[in-house]
Amino acid sequence: MDALHTAGIRFAEALQSGPPWLEKFWISVTSLADPKCVFTICFPLAYFLDRKVGVSVLWIGLVSEWLNVVLKWFLFGERPFWWVHESGFASKELVTLRQFPVSCETGPGDPSGHCMITGAALWPLVTALTALASRHSRSLAVKLSPFGAYALLLLAVGLSRVFVLAHFPHQVVGGILAGAALGWGLQGHTPATRSLGFFVAAALALLLSSLALHSLVIAAGIDIDW
């Protein structure tokens, strides 16, 4: 893992050595792709365009948020900003990295929540836009443009998370793959006909199960809040 982490640090250095104007771009991307935007921006917009798609975005966003927390507890991923000091890497080799206000995120970092939750929640919206494009155009480029934009967005989000030292590259790749797989897998199981009470109960169940799991792991002697 040290070799993987070292390669990630060098990659982050290369990203940070880019043109100065890119700094504002990466920080803007990592801010706009915060998982809470799935619920405050993406869900309302998707719901306005199509109720079923909107509910699917909400449902998948909810489940992926919960699953990301659970995965982080079990995978125990390091954060670059902390690892470079705690591992002693910075004292052995010359490291040229900059800190940003969003660099000092605490808690495990694998997989990337920004990539996983955004990738999962946007999947139904992207497939809906692809279907819409297919109905109005025979051009393959037009039909594939929603997925092209989706891929570019996740790539930008992933690079932004490495740039601000919130994640290592392998955590970003894992988050993207997990998010896309989760979006694809859950899209066909969206409880679109359920009442609001169902979603409230589901959210409460996920919350309580997280608290219970947290307590069990702590009781087993594993400090997941390291």
TrEMBL record:
The keyword Endoplasmic reticulum applies. It is an enzyme of class 3 (hydrolase). The chain crosses the membrane at residues 56-76, 116-133, 140-162, 168-186, 198-222. Pathway: Carbohydrate biosynthesis; gluconeogenesis. GO terms for cellular component: endoplasmic reticulum membrane. Keywords: Endoplasmic reticulum, Gluconeogenesis, Hydrolase, Membrane, Transmembrane, Transmembrane helix. It comes from the Eukaryota. The keyword Hydrolase applies. GO terms for molecular function: glucose-6-phosphatase activity. InterPro entries: PAP2/HPO, PAP2/HPO_sf. It is found in: Endoplasmic reticulum membrane. Its EC number is 3.1.3.9. Residues 53-187 form the Phosphatidic acid phosphatase type 2/haloperoxidase domain. It is a multi-pass membrane protein. Pfam families: PAP2. This is Glucose-6-phosphatase 3. It comes from Himantopus himantopus. The lineage of its organism: Eukaryota, Metazoa, Chordata, Craniata, Vertebrata. The gene is G6pc3.
